[in-house]
Specification:
Blueprint lengths: L2 H22 L4 H23 L10 E2 L6 E3 H5 L7 H5 L2 E7 L16 E3 L2 E2 H15 L6 E5 L4 H7 L10 E5 L3 E2 L1 E2 L20 E2 L6 H7 L2 H7 L4 E6 L9 H8 L9 E7 L9 E5 L2 E5 L9 H5 L6 E10 H9 L8 E6 L5 E6 L13 E4 L11 H8 L3 E4 L2 E4 L10 E4 L6 H7 L5 E11 L2 E3 L4 E9 L6 E3 L4 E8 L8
Parallel strand pairs: 2-18, 3-6, 3-11, 6-7, 12-18, 21-22, 22-24, 23-25, 24-26
Antiparallel strand pairs: 1-13, 4-5, 8-10, 9-17, 11-15, 12-15, 13-14, 16-17, 19-20
Helix pairs in contact: 1-2
Length: about 500
Amino acid sequence: MTEFQEKLRQQHEESMLKELEALLATATEAEAEISRKDFAGFRELFHRFLQVKGPSVDWAKISRPPEDLIQPYDKIKAKGLPDNISASLNKLVVVKLNGGLGTSMGCKGPKSLISVRSENTFLDLTVQQIEHLNKTFNADVPLVLMNSFNTDEDTKKILQKYKHHRVRIHTFNQSRYPRINKESLLPIAKGMGTSGENTEAWYPPGHGDIYASFNNSGLLNKLIAEGKEYIFVSNIDNLGATVDLFIVQHLMSQPADKRCEFIMEVTDKTRADVKGGTLIQYEDHLRLLEIAQVPKAHVDEFKSVTKFKIFNTNNLWISLPAIKRLHETKTLDLEIIVNPKTLDGGLNVIQLETAVGAAIKSFKNAMGVNVPRSRFLPVKTSSDLLLVMSNLYSLDAGSLTMSKKREFPTTPHVKLGSSFTKVQDFLTRFESIPDMLELDHLTVSGDVTFGKNVSLKGTVIIIANHGDRIDIPAGAMLENKIVSGNLRILDH
């Protein structure tokens, strides 16, 4: 950095500190105490943001990880389970990332409260899974939800309904960081409130914030004091992320001096996953490489399925004492993700974020486990929702498994058009969910509805052009068909 750049950086930091202090002055005492901790983390991120320029990896130093650092799941499974797996389970905590809203699917409130199967929400299914585990093995695996200021209130209200379930549920809140103006690099917030003119002024800073906010909440120390050793972290909308007994056993059976402190579940890339983060070997460490860190000239190479064969599912197993140690020694190293946004009024802002998996390089004996695709079943869109609501999956104690009646293990490729984006619209367009056991590919575009007991097989493409409408009649069986034009079925 030149002297001029250094001066400019100091100026930005001083101005930021002033603004943050002014914001804190508008807070209540209790609010200020929490926000002060949040702002300390934000200032650290902002400081690093001002220093780092350009992609954070040197492409020439990247290599594929050594074989032994990414183990096939079958190898871990082959070791079998001991008779007393409950002793290992009692050292485990399940953490679900619950900071997201359902806005991308046209729903108000937390995404985890959307019904996905037989009237069960993401949260219902999670509670059922863990309760089943605790009852079956007479264990005490608690559930921890990492909420954000967007989801906390609504989630806490709904938690009352699980009072009599055999699951202890804890929550803690992700930090709340100020969005900054792209030009001035100052917060756009006028006060600490989150409504009115400040509605768009704040954001939860990505799931990498789990380490700091978990520690700040006091929950990390409380769980360690209870004898808990590992957390299993996953996104609440990944219905494949259930507690895996073989991975639990693998972690708990390592000798103390060779303890694996971090496992990232990865799975084989398909064309649909080309943007997913991948594991690389970099300067003698296993490291997560995200598309945002890749120099522009190498983006196509990053997306190639041949060079980078696996991607991160964001199912992670992390040692609690290791998180505590990294906090105390201040050696947790997370790359900054700069997320530019344009607000409704046209203002350009920047969000500084981090990803939970990026910490892998800070942990000892970290490794990847290449798991079956079935452990990655995220519901991000109504197309995903159609898959998990269909007879492709059966539901047992909160867990979805691929139906034995499906002859091949891959899920069909489903693309529903914009008329299906919102969950409400999606539900009104299906009188019942079609039979999809033999489906390979489905594309639906335009004003299309499905009657009861429709069956879809092979490749089915249904396109209603602008102004047209297609009603697929009840009981219809479409196999390798393209349907277009206009098809109305009216009651008389």
